[in-house]
Write a structure and sequence with these properties.
Helix content: 25-40%
Strand content: 5-15%
Distance between the termini: 9 Å
Number of helices: 5
Order of helices and strands: HHEHEHEH
CATH class: Alpha Beta
CATH architecture: 2-Layer Sandwich
Largest sheet: 3 strands, parallel
Radius of gyration: 17 Å
Number of strands: 3
Number of domains: 1
Length: 143
């Protein structure tokens, strides 16, 4: 990833009440006395389908956090849906842990070049240094 000297500040979009998902969330919260909730997705397939459906139906903004992103089938399918959302005009912000990104760096860099995508790495590692030392000295950095 390129240096982040020119990193632009970015924040969550809050004007989503007029989207389909925004209206659904507003109705769900209202029907539960103003309380929000959590839905446990306890299978890998269920969790993947939920992420894919959210990406497919996103209208305005999509904020995604990923711990381990690989070039396996589920990783490629999800990145494809994120790119399609960005192509539809959805602002996509992707935060990925740099734990095992060497295999997907080029693809992530290409996605970051998309005008509607913003990719940031958590705990980014310098490629020319031993990772063990970086685990101790750079823990918690975001680019």
């Amino acid at each position: 990833m390129p240096p982040n000297d020119h990193q632009i500040s970015s924040a969550v979009l809050t004007d989503t009440d007029d989207t389909i998902m925004g209206r659904n969330v507003t109705e769900a919260v209202a029907s539960n006395g103003g309380q929000t909730g959590v839905l446990l997705l306890n299978t890998g397939l269920g969790a993947f389908v939920a992420r894919a459906v959210l990406a497919i139906n996103a209208e305005r903004s999509l904020d995604v956090q990923y711990y381990l992103l690989h070039r396996d089938l589920s990783g490629r399918l999800l990145l494809d849906q994120l790119l399609k959302a960005a192509d539809r005009g959805v602002r996509v912000r992707l935060l990925v842990d740099d734990m095992d990104m060497a295999a997907v760096d080029l693809g992530i860099a290409v996605m970051d070049a998309h005008p509607n995508m913003e990719v940031r790495l958590f705990n980014p590692f310098a490629r020319n240094r031993t990772r063990l030392l970086q685990y101790v000295s750079r823990f918690g950095s975001v680019t």
